[in-house]
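Sample A.
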Amino acid sequence: MTKIVNHWIGGKTAEGASGTHGPVTNPATGEVTTKVAYASVEEVDAAVAAAKDAYRSWSQSSLATRTSILFRFRALVDAHRDEIAELITAEHGKVHSDALGEVARGLEIVDLACGINVQLKGELSTQVASRVDVASIRQPLGVVAGITPFNFPAMVPMWMFPLAIACGNTFVLKPSEKDPSAAVRLAELMAEAGLPDGVFNVVHGDKLAVDRLLTHPDVKAVSFVGSTPIARYIHTTASANGKRVQALGGAKNHMLVLPDADLDAAADAVVSAAYGSAGERCMAISAVVAVGAIGDTLVEKIRERAEKIKIGPGDDPTSEMGPLITKVHRDKVASYVENAAAEGAEVVLDGTGHTVDGYEDGHWIGISLLDKVPTSAKAYQDEIFGPVLCVLRTETYEEAVDLINASPYGNGTAIFTRDGGAARRFQLEVEAGMVGVNVPIPVPVGYHSFGGWKDSLFGDHHIYGNDGTHFYTRGKVVTTRWPDPADAPAGVDLGFPRNH
């Protein structure tokens, strides 16, 4: 029997009243295993209404109440991490160990939310004028929404809703319709932890549901992670409707390798960062810039390692890389490799014909490695979001940095070198929001913020960390004067107030 994933509204399962459902496929088999309900406008409105009603009491709850619930939620997620990872693998396709890593990184932000009392601590200045004190405080916004991608169906939602809820907001999540089960399981665990009904809601769907969240007058802010064209649309539409927006877009993450680098370490790092999760990561390394005469040696070391990667279903413990999310996406990724030679690249490894015995209908693609890729090639210009690595060559460090900075994306980047001076120059000169020095995937820990530059971010705030807390709250300044009973009446003074 086909499983059905419904909405979660007001603390309970809400069957899809619209009658419209979408298919959820096991990428390893190509089989439709699940149907997910698509929300109507009325169902989105019901979720927002539940969140708005819950906000009245939740925003007035104590920090101790909020954090005690989040501590219990953290313990529940930890206890169920294998179950959540299995849901991710069944619908996304990534291997189980990678899915477990995703859950662990999501828990880092829950940890941060559990300490929200420190983040929300205000400021007080006493005696700024005679018997006048000024306090700065931060307060929640109201109902906020999150729209999240398929590639991290547990982690990215956990980048958003724990902080938003800890700050006193209520939340409506619209997860990817391609792998929705993990989001609903997180909602169930939040309820089990004691979260009041309506504080956290989940609605599934497509553009209709997204557009209603972007235009709904009771939604005060929208968080988004996805591709650059959609991020730009989210930012433009939600901003035009008076909402605060953080919209994280796509990437083309470069790794610069200098001639003095440990080439074995660099090859290990780039293979892991380029092909992990089948390249379906916004922080995947998809372009290597080899400086000087090391290019041939580096490419050969990458090829040797890449050819040994075991590709198979994510629930097989021996698999190192799983399938892509859909057949349509698999075919699109393959097209970049198929056209690479005509665009001037050298195809070192072609994974487009890869199959897995016993899983012939799965969305499989093997490892592809393209060398001497010109910047004019589509394989370099586009975010492929698959296991395709481009290698570019430059003669100098300066030429390499100029090449990286010319990219419209500025999400993450890395440099591999033994030269501390070059590394320091790079971290200051490169135009990207996250930089790794001998670290291929520089995803910040939870108490720092995640976000890119240029076409990788629309809006003023990065996600989680201090930026996340500030995004989900707004400032208020309170000026107080308690006059002494012995003071004479001040009288009327129409002049501009002065401190004295």
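Sample B, a different protein:
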Amino acid sequence: MAVNKAEDIPVFLYEGTNRRGQKVKGEMPSKNMALAKAVLRKQGVNVTTIRQKSKNPLEFLTKKKISPMDIAIFTRQLATMMKAGVPLVQSFEIVAEGLDNPSMREVVLGIKGEVEGGNTFAGALRKYPQYFDDLFCSLVASGEQSGALETMLDRVAIYKEKSELLKMKIKKAMKYPTAVIIVALVVTIILMVKVVPVFSELFSSFGAELPAFTQMVVDMSKWMQAYWFVLVGVIVLVIGAFREANKRSEKFRDFIDRSVLKLPIFGDLVYKAIIARFARTLATTFAAGVPLIDALESTAGATGNVVYRKATMQIREDVSTGQQLQFSMRSTNVFPSMAIQMVAIGEESGALDAMLDKVATHFENEVDNAVDGLTSLMEPLIMAILGVLVGGLVVAMYLPIFQMGSVI
């Protein structure tokens, strides 16, 4: 039994500097991260990074990624625990036990170790910038300083849940038509490479001239059989070039952002989602006691579109000179009248956060309705595309047979 207990003690990998300022690293078995850091501190090691060693050497191959929804769930559960009066450190333990994602559980326990070691909650979150952005950390820090952490966590949880739900709705609208069109293209390619050649051999035995439409399809089939690798190469090259340009070129990203807003069907959906995100972020930060100028700076990054990011930064500059928010928003010419009027009412009544929250809720509902309408609209459009692609091939292949029948 003693051996099993020893095996259950986690091992922590650490890096730091000793009393002479030399870099050191190694392993430290301990019951938890805070105890390991305390022991290393007594040994004269100033720890810079420390993490729990994985027991499975192949874990990186099967390790589940942490999604934004995992962060939203963690925030909601932690807010619920703290509202129930459970201490922060104990809340971490309870939440970690209930998480299905091992990677998220490891992060929560890491945050717990940091807090036990004397770090603030916001400071512990900043150790994981890939999961907790500046807005999240700033709101938590504001809650800690004001002594209302449980209230702030509840607001952050609502913000994360609404934001992720909005993203899921947009993805839902995009995924369905994209998936169907890809399947249609794959089926068309298979028909062109495998089925059309069989008909082509049959037609060549007739010795008669093929209809123009059928001849075109046969020629395309021959080209795809001979140069399929060129087609695949072009597709891969275009996708790769798009991803690289999107990653490296700010001008290209700005061009995409502007172009998306001009799309005939999806543009309106993206527009409403941006307005909802703008209002939700500004409402959450302003309600948290963040000054309006700082709240606008955080909101600019959360809009997710260069047009509204620049517009928000322009609003920030105008507000910093003493101009009212409603007039600043109106001067950008990118915000809807309804949102501007609600902001005006909020400024006059002193309930700006409540009015912004109503604007966010309204446009989130608009996005929901737009997604449902878009799905209904796309179904007949997709059927038409499938009919043109697959039905066109079928007609092209049977057209010579029909002509022969009419001659006979």
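Observation for Sample B: Residues 1-7 have pLDDT under 50 and may be disordered.
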